[in-house]
Structures are given as C-alpha cells and as structure tokens.
Backbone:
C-alpha cells in the first residue's frame, strides 16, 4: 500500500500486537491485562501534497476579493470610507493598500466623495459597482433555485449533532463554507418552521438553532448513498466504507498496513446514528468521528474546510480534543494543508489533481463572481497594454526627434 506525502510511525513496544488482535482474549488472565490502544499509539509525520495545495492556491485571489466585498456589503448603506477599509487590511489579510487593490480589481467598486460627518472634508468612499450589484442579483437567483439543497444541508448539520441543536454563532461563522446564504436566519429558518426552531437571544451570543423534525431522507451519508448506488448497479450488496485514495510517495510499515486494514474492516458507523453508548476512546468512536468529518467535508462547497472552523463544533459532534490528528492519521481519506498558514482539511476523493470532480450546485455563485473578477482583470490588462504601446510610441517619436536634432546640430557645426 502506498501513502502519498505521509509517513507513519508506531510507538508501541509490541511489534506483533496487531497480529494478535483476533486472539486477544487468549492472552488475558486475572493477573495480567494487556493495555492496547491502537489509536493513540500511532504517530504521523505530515508531508506536503502539492496538487491539493495548488487547489487552495488557485482560490487565493478569489477569496481575498470575496472578503473585501463582504466587508463593504456589511457596512450601513453598503458604503465605506476608503481610509476605514485601509485600517482593516491586517484583519482582511490584504497585503497591499486598498487603493492598489481597487486598481488591480476594477469593476468591484465605484469611488465617490462624501463627508463622514456633516462639516468634515470630502473623502473617497467605496460602494458596490453596478456590475457587482448585478452579481448579487444572480447570487440570489442561484440560492432561490437551490433552496431545497440549502435546507437539507442545514438539517444534516443539526442531525449529526449530539442534541440536534447548534449555536447560531457557530453556524454563522461556518455559513460560507457550507453555502448557507447570509440571510438564512431571517428568511430561510422562519420559512421552514417544520424543520427549524430559533431559540434564545439572537445577537447576544446565546441563540440556538434547533431541529424540529427528523427527515429520514436526509439521514443518509454520502458514503451510504454511494454504497446503495453501487449495489443497485451491480446487483451485489456493497458494504458502506471509506475510499482510500493514496497518491504515490510513501509506503506503510507492516504494522501500519495491518492497522489500516483492521480499522477499515470495522463496521461503518453513520454520522446520523446515535452513538451515546460508545466509549469516546474506542476504535468505533474513531470510525464514527471520521465518518462525521467525511460528511462535513462532503457537505462543504469546496470539499475542504479550515480546521479551526471544524474545531468550533467539537462538543456538538463529540470530537476528541485531538480530532485534527485524524486528518493525517487517515491520510488516505483526508489531507491537511498548511497553505497560507491556515490548517485546512481536504477530502481527497473529491479531487482529481487540483480540480474538483463533482461540483456543488451552489458553486455557480463562485463561478459568477470569478467571471466578474476576470472581466475586470481583462479590462485592466488591456488598459496596461494600450498604455505600454503609447509609451513605446512616445519613446520612438522622441528618439526620432532627437535624431533629427542631432543631424541638424552636425550640419550647423560643419557650416
């Protein structure tokens, strides 16, 4: 078996312990008990996966522009003084001045002059351009067309949680990752009161979204759906399990191969199943946790989510405190990227090279936004080309004029 970009090491002092698993009871007696922890004994050395890092890099410019747009749209009247936005550069991870950013990405904003206070001087403000406003209308249309998908995602997020209720703050923080619209609490939740109930005090950090009705149709994971489809196509019952997608690069030691094999042979535990009876430190709970992480990444727009965002749901989904180690320990299922100084969990099977295989319908919003950006970039490139050509012509004319002056000077000198 080959594992790409990951090295596995075992710290156990019993190299043959994995071979004894099935005959484990015969080694027990009243005077001696062998302590066997197949999870914590495994240590993993992380290594880079260049292709999946490239997938994240490809979206870097788009995400930066989206953050700046969001900042402006969240302002009262959707307008902000340019200097106020400049003060937010560090938080927005913007490494150039806002004026430079605007020049590099034309078509996003219009600049106009206004007063911050009635008697203050006029200063430059930014507001959405007509082009950006057209995109926002298109975004709303795509959300309306895929409202059933959004509802099912929100239900699934609640159905996997321990008590079928999640803090609103957590959901708002993760809404972009899962494709939830900005106004989902105002427009979507009240509209689907048969599924959702908002409780607590919104705006005070103490509000919660509660699941009202359990829909069995939503209680099937991507892995279970895939097994059913394969069973239907082949006529043979297919057992739900994880796909191990291992790029070339590193081989597993014998004990690790056996551990992976035995772990995969454990029954798949649906992320929607009640696991209150399972020990938090058991291998079964590990398998269930991996199932939840797999499902969460499958529900995300880009099949990847920053680890800190997933960490906000540790209590809701009964993750262990060291849950992030699962992304390297199960490197045939996940990849944990460190691109941009942020840990990002990536679902390997969702990518072919650096491209998504199956795109979420809500990614149409991203595609439209990228079209808007690329239109502006093309206009800027054309403007720079024209400017360079003009400079070149001016230089040629100046050189010709200087040549004529030189000839005239020589003729006068001869006289």
Residues:
């Amino acid at each position: 078996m080959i594992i790409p970009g990951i090295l596995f090491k075992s710290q156990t002092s019993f190299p043959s312990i994995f071979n004894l698993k099935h005959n484990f009871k015969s080694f027990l007696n009243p005077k001696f008990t062998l302590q066997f922890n197949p999870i914590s004994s495994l240590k993993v050395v992380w290594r880079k996966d260049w292709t999946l890092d490239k997938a994240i890099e490809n979206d870097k410019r788009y995400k930066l522009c989206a953050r700046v747009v969001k900042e402006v749209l969240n302002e009262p009247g959707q307008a902000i003084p340019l200097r106020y936005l400049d003060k937010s550069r560090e938080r927005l991870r913007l490494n150039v001045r806002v004026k430079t950013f605007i020049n590099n990405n034309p078509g996003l904003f219009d600049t106009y002059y206004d007063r911050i206070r009635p008697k203050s001087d006029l200063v430059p403000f930014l507001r959405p351009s007509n082009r950006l406003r057209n995109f926002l209308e298109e975004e709303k249309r795509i959300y309306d067309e895929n409202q059933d998908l959004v509802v099912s995602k929100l239900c699934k997020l609640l159905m996997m949680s321990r008590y079928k209720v999640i803090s609103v703050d957590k959901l708002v923080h993760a809404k972009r990752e899962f494709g939830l619209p900005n106004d989902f609490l105002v427009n979507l939740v009240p509209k689907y009161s048969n599924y959702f109930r908002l409780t607590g005090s919104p705006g005070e950090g103490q509000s919660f979204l509660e699941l009202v009705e359990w829909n069995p149709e939503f209680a099937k994971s991507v892995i279970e759906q895939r097994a059913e489809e394969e069973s239907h196509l082949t006529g043979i019952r297919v057992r739900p399990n994880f796909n191990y997608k291992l790029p070339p690069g590193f081989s597993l030691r014998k004990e690790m191969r056996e551990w992976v094999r035995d772990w995969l042979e454990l029954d798949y535990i649906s992320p929607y199943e009640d696991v209150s009876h399972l020990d938090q430190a058991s291998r079964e709970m590990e398998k269930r946790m991996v199932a939840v992480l797999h499902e969460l990444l499958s529900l995300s727009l880009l099949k990847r989510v920053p680890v800190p965002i997933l960490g906000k749901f540790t209590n809701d989904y009964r993750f262990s405190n060291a849950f992030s180690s699962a992304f390297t320990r199960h490197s045939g299922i996940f990849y944990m990227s460190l691109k941009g100084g942020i840990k990002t969990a990536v679902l390997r099977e969702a990518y072919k090279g650096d491209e998504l295989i199956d795109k979420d319908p809500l990614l149409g919003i991203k595609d439209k936004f990228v079209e808007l950006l690329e239109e502006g970039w093309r206009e800027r490139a054309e403007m720079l080309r024209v400017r360079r050509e003009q400079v070149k012509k001016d230089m040629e004319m100046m050189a010709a004029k200087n040549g004529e002056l030189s000839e005239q000077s020589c003729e006068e000198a001869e006289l």
User: Anything to note?
Assistant: The two ends are 91 Å apart (CA to CA). Residues 102 and 248 are 42 Å apart (CA to CA). Residues 1-38 have pLDDT under 50 and may be disordered. The longest helix spans residues 363-414.
